[in-house]
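batch job 7 of whatever, protein = Acyl-CoA reductase LuxC
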Amino acid sequence: MSNKNHITEAFIQLGRFLSQFSSNGIKKAENILHNDLFFDGFKHQIKVANENNGWFTQDNIVFALEGWSKQLTEEKLNNWLKDYTLKTSQPKTVAIIMAGNIPLVGFHDFLCVLISGHNILIKQSSNDKHLLPFIAKYLEYVTPELKGKIKFTEDKLDNFDAVIATGSNNTARYFEYYFKDKPSIIRKNRNSVAILTGNESKEQLDLLSEDIFRYYGLGCRNVSKLFVPKDYNFDAFFEAMYKWNDIIHQNKYANNYDYNKAVYLMSEFDMLENGFLMIKEDQSYSSPIATVFYEYYSSEEALKQKIDADQDLIQCIVADGFSNSEIPFGKTQKPELYDYADDIDTIAFLLKI
């Protein structure tokens, strides 16, 4: 069995381990490798991650873990990797600078680097630093040859051959300058949009609420902007959002809601709101927490041209029958292994360095 298969196998076992942490509850299962050593510890890490970052509720952490457990199966991993020729002859060291906006947001990069046979040097965000080191330790127990291939650092990055960095538009400029001599993927701010026609079913709008509110809207895959036809009636939209009304009891969310509402009222902006979500007509894609922007479109053709021109600002397009690259309602925060951020094939990049 090749080294590559050992690493794939480690991730399959990790998927089984993570399957114990689901939205139906956290329950210890039988026949999970090294479970006695890791189960209680990981449960504790979830608690610590939440204490360290109020946005990382148990519900949201478990949602992320459940998503990964469903992807890390033999069938899905093999299906994803079948079109690549993975080589492990000369492993390079790939530095990854991770964002911290949603739980385990850097995990896909982590998976790509290891599965392509390279070593990884990780600089985590202080907002999300508790889960991944524990997961890395689990993988090393399953496949001891991973020991020495995974390194975390809080210091200045050095001794690496390539870099994948995710940050804001400001930090991206710094990254581009700083890493100009290395092969790199530098990711900037992106947001996701939903295109509504007014003919959406109640179920589709219900699913859209998941795309908007999951992780409090903090992910680049969360919908922060709606495109709606002229004279669109928002009643059905607000009705579908209502099941998330408890979100306002989360302090950090409520503070953002109150603050942004006060700013809009003082500026005399027109906006509609329902007590936990505001919608405001705005050209921008990046809306503040507790707010979704909307923009009217006159024709589908004009909208296609606009979205085409703005493609570097957009991560996902949620729609039904609008374009080949659209995502169905309710699926933005359930990406598949081949759903690469910014449409840049990370594995292809890693196989070239």
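notes: The longest helix spans residues 35-52.
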